[in-house]
Amino acid sequence: MSIGNATLQLTSAETPDTRDEGRTTMNHTVVRYTVTSDHASENEVLVKKVYEELHASMPEGLRYSTFVLDDGLTFLHIAGFDSGDGQHALSDTAAFRQFQERIIERCAVPPASSSARQVGSYRFGIE
Questions:
Q1: What is the mean predicted confidence (pLDDT) over 29-50?
Q2: What is the CATH number for 69?
């Protein structure tokens, strides 16, 4: 998905995670970027607004987590999409569109995305 002059790829990955237990196929994408120090708080507020909207709408097919590293400036987003359906649930939220609007202006290091294949997980994403 396009953000300014860069691309923040939170779309279905090429390497689906197929579970043996009969669960649906999940594609994963990891995005990492670093904001400038004067935009760190703003970026975190925008990210939290995305989660507020997701918690209110409870879209199916989406697993999504965001972390900020110890430097307080580097953000890591991990998205999992069941069969592509979750991709639209995220990109269709008004808060996510607002988050994307000026991402390049907030960044010292622009977003870099990669498809990911889950090797294992223990209680990850359980609140």
A1: 97
A2: 3.30.70.100
- DSSP assignment letter at 28: E
Question: Is the predicted pLDDT of residue 54 greater than 50, yes or no?
Answer: yes
Return the number of other C-beta atoms located less than 10 Å from residue 77's C-beta. 21
Look up the domain containing 24 and give its range.
Answer: 2-113
Identify whether 86 is part of a domain.
yes
DSSP state of 23: P
Q: Report the share of the chain in percent with pLDDT over 70.
A: 74
What predicted TM-score, i.e. pTM, was given to this entire model?
0.78
Count of the separate structural domains present in the chain:
1
Report helix, strand or coil for 30: strand
**Nearest residue to 29 via CA among 69, 63, 2, 58:** 63
> Looking at the domain assignment, is residue 123 inside a domain?
no
Residue 17 falls inside a structural domain: yes
The 10s digit of each residue's pLDDT in 75-100 is 999 998 886 555 678 888 999 999 99
